[in-house]
Structure formats: C-alpha cells, structure tokens
Amino acid sequence: MLLTVLDLAGIAVFAASGALAGVAARLDLFGVVTVAVLTGLGGGVIRDVLLGLTPPTSLRRWPYLLAPVVVGLLVFAFHTWVTRLRRAIEWADAFGLALFATAGSGAALAAGAPGVTAVVVGLITAIGGGVIRDVLVGEVPQVLRREVYAVPALLGAAVVVVGHDMGLPPVPVAIGAAGLVLAVRIVAMLRGWNAPLPPAPRDRP
Amino acid sequence: MLLTVLDLAGIAVFAASGALAGVAARLDLFGVVTVAVLTGLGGGVIRDVLLGLTPPTSLRRWPYLLAPVVVGLLVFAFHTWVTRLRRAIEWADAFGLALFATAGSGAALAAGAPGVTAVVVGLITAIGGGVIRDVLVGEVPQVLRREVYAVPALLGAAVVVVGHDMGLPPVPVAIGAAGLVLAVRIVAMLRGWNAPLPPAPRDRP
Amino acid sequence: MLLTVLDLAGIAVFAASGALAGVAARLDLFGVVTVAVLTGLGGGVIRDVLLGLTPPTSLRRWPYLLAPVVVGLLVFAFHTWVTRLRRAIEWADAFGLALFATAGSGAALAAGAPGVTAVVVGLITAIGGGVIRDVLVGEVPQVLRREVYAVPALLGAAVVVVGHDMGLPPVPVAIGAAGLVLAVRIVAMLRGWNAPLPPAPRDRP
Known about the structure:
Three copies of one chain form a homotrimer. Chain A is mostly helical. In chain A, about 75% of the residues lie in helices and about 0% in strands. The first copy, chain A, contains eight helices and no strands. Chain A has helices spanning about 1-25, 30-50, 60-85, 85-110, 115-135, 140-145, 150-165, 170-190. In chain A, helix 2 (about 30-50) crosses helix 3. The longest helix of chain A is centred in the middle third of the chain and has 25 residues, at about 85-110. Chains in contact: A-B, A-C, B-C. The interface of A and B includes residues 34, 62 and 137 of A.
C-alpha cells in the first residue's frame, strides 16, 4: 500500500517534468499528456520488458495510467504556475530518482536477475523516462549533458544489490539506498556539481 | 485471410507515409526503405514486445516484410508523383489508424491482457509507427504537435475493450470501432480540427 | 571462448564510435560513457528482447558492461588521439558489423526463430547500436543517410540463414558470411560507394 503510494508519487513527479518539457516544446494538449505519461511510466515499462515481465505492470492498472494523465492535464492548464514551482519539482524529482533506482533494482532481483542486471536495470528505470522525454521533444537527453544525476541512481541501485548479496533485510537496505540517492542528488543540486566535459584539444604552435 | 489483407493494407499505407518522410529528409535508398519498414511494422512490433509475444508476428512472415519494402522502393522511385497523392494518402492513413487501433487492442485481449492494457496497447499500435518515423528523421512526432489523430485511435481501442467486457461478439464490435475511428479522424481532417495548445502566460501590468 | 573475445571486440569497437559521437556532441563524462555503452550493447539488447531472451545476455555478465565503460572512459580522456585514429576505427567498425550481423542471425536461429526473423534480427543487431547512438546525440541515423553500410549486414545475415536452411555446418557458414560482410563493406569504404538518393523532381518548362 505504502509502496504503491510512493510509486504513484514518483510517477507523478516524473510526469510533471515531462509535461513541462512538452509545454516548453509547444506541444498540443494530447502531446503534453502523452509526454507526461511516457516520462512517468517509460522507465518502468523498459524495466519490465528487459526482465520479461509482460505486459508491464504499469500498463495493467488504472491508477498508474491515470496519475500521469491527470498530472499532464493539470500542468497543461496551469503551466505558468507550475513553472514557478520548478525548484520544488527539482526536489521532488530527486525523490522520484531515489525511488525508481531502488525499486527498479529490487524488482530485478525479485525477478531472479543476477546482480549486474539489477544494477543496470535500476539505473535504466530511474533515467529511462527522462531520456524518452528529451528524445520526444527533440533534445539531447539532459542526463547525458549536465549535472550529477545518473551517478546517485547508479550508487543506489548498487547498494540494493550489495545488500541483497550480503543477505541483509531488503526494506532497511532499500530505505538506506534511497536516502543515499537523495543525499547525493540534493548535494549535487545545491552545489551545482556538473560532470566533467571532455578535455579540449591542445593548442598547437 | 481478409484480416491479413487488411493488415497488409494498413502496413503499406503507414510505410508510404514513412517513405515520404524519408524522401523529404533526403535519406538515401536504404534509409527511405528502412523508415518505410519501421513505420509500417513499428507499432505492431512494440505491441508484441509489450504483450510478450516474441518474436513479433510481423517479423515472422515474408509478406509483412516485403509489403513495406516494396512500398518504400516505389515511393523512392516515384516520389514526385506520390507527393501529389498526399491527400489520398491521408485518407488511407485514417484507414490504417482505424485498423491498427482496433486490431491492436483485439490482439491484447486475445493474449489475455486486462482491459486497461488493451486500450493502451491499441493506441500504441496505432501511433507507434508514426512516432518512430518522426524521431528517425529528426522531428518532434506529429501526433504530439497537431491535429486530432490519437484521440480517435484511443476511442476505437476503448470501444473494442468495452464491447469485450460486455460479452458482445468481437467482429461486429471491431467493425463498429474501426468505423468510429475512421469517422472521427476524417471529420477532424475535413474540419481542420487541432488539439488545443497550452494557454499563454497572462500579460502583467 | 573465442566467440566471447570476438563479441567483446565488436562491442568495444561500437562503443568507441559511440563515445566519439558523444565527445563531438559535447556530452559530459557520464554522457560519453552512456552513449558508449548503449552503442556497444544496444543492438544485442534489442535482438534479445525481440527474441524473448530476457534479461538480455549482455546485461547479465560484467565483462559485457565493463568493456564499453572502459572504452568510453579512454575515449573521453584521450579523444584527441582517438579522433586521429578514425580511419582505423572505421576498419574495426566493419569488423564489428560483420560479427554482429552473423552472430545476431545465428542467435535468432538458435532461439528457434524462422529464417525471415533471423535475417531481420541479424540486421537489427548490426545497425541498432549505431541508430541509438545517432538518435541520442540528436542526429538522423547515419545508416539511413549515406554509404553502403546496412546492405553488407543484410547480405551476411541472409547467408547465415540460407546456409542453415541448406543444412550446412554453422561455423564455416558464419565465417564465410562474416567475410562477405567485411569484403563488401571495405570495398564500399575504399571506393566511397554511396546508396542512391531519391530522384530529384523533374524541371518544368
């Protein structure tokens, strides 16, 4: 029950970032809602397809579809106010990242996947929706370009797998892993950390 | 037999729209044919992967592959004439949309998926190929930007599912659902209906 | 053992082309490594998902993930030198193309897929990573735009399937098919062959 609520909260937050990107790209009503749905559910759908869990969980239950649709409609109607909330959404997005990374790797382990698969699947669950969002609106995915965003998700997924391999109880491990993702992501946001860019070609005489 | 012919007709029409987009993007021969194939088959392949029906049906039979290849070659060779047929292709595309939405949701129900999954899968089957087409040629998917295109597909898929839940015979329901998609799409085309754009920020004094 | 080494070599070469594209698009460290991983593994992951082999092989073993990560890091650090090696990478890429096309169609046959599926899956395995690479950095896929690249892959996959249907021993057939891909691709590179572009509209008086 609590897990479902947290799951829906993560979907809603990612859907809001998708809908905002759709508004910024001047999509129409249906486009904004579609990008919201694909951003909110995309990571989980890819996760389930990679694990062979078909049809994907989030396409089997009404609340999982309704949540991003409603968020998309609200953002469409009130986007000028939501844009002012962008800072709040960034914080909520960090929460979604933490939730999806740990839940994604946990789902992979529960499906019997080996540890390496669970780490990758956790990362893909966390960042997949955002990549879909950016490709749909014609941009190079943000996660590839700036900020420390994927690294905390990777860390969190790895902690879940290590905890599982060490036989630790899954719930405290998941909470600790999610806390780690949140902490690293929020510090990165507050300090404006960016991943390094490629070294420039050296000057020639 | 009739279903296969209708299926191939839908694939051919979508392949033609893909090939025309490829020509417009100045792709080479192989590029035009590839976009034609992916536009024609993409929606069905995603449908089958989401339902766990692998390898996807349309990759298992020669006619399903040959149809979009031949269409791609013909459009490549005669594109100046095909472009003049663009209006006819739009009408045929409405037919493909109707067919794919109803066949997609029907396939999902036949695979034992719940109703909500069948509605989403029907929609994805109908619009997936066009989204792939536009992403490949570097454009924001048309279905997200303009015109009433996805809504009739969604309606048709929903009618198939409601008919199934009410225990109605599937063939008349599918014909009715396809007719509804066609009717809404054609009225939207003739009247130039567009989905609403996001409200502009209000001016400030 | 030899197959694994060849497989890893193909992944490494494709990862290098992905990392170079990421550097050219001014991605950050994580972006360059991610594009390297997705370019190296993408074709094989799509292949396994289409065949229903989940989780995909390349997400189940550490070496398959570490190889493109290490290549991505090296290209990131030394990209000015690697760029000078671009000609060598093109040759190595032809080798990767040969390997992936034949291994992809072989894997499909081994999974019990029909011949038509094996040809398509072989082609997708060979070109899928490059398509993902180009879409992620915001470009129309190179394979659709220029050069004779997909045709040798298609030929190689077809030879594997024909050999299988004729009951020939798989290893010599695979070697011959890979040699054919290599030969056609290298001749195309050396001669600068390009696939034809769409015929221009005729002038009118």
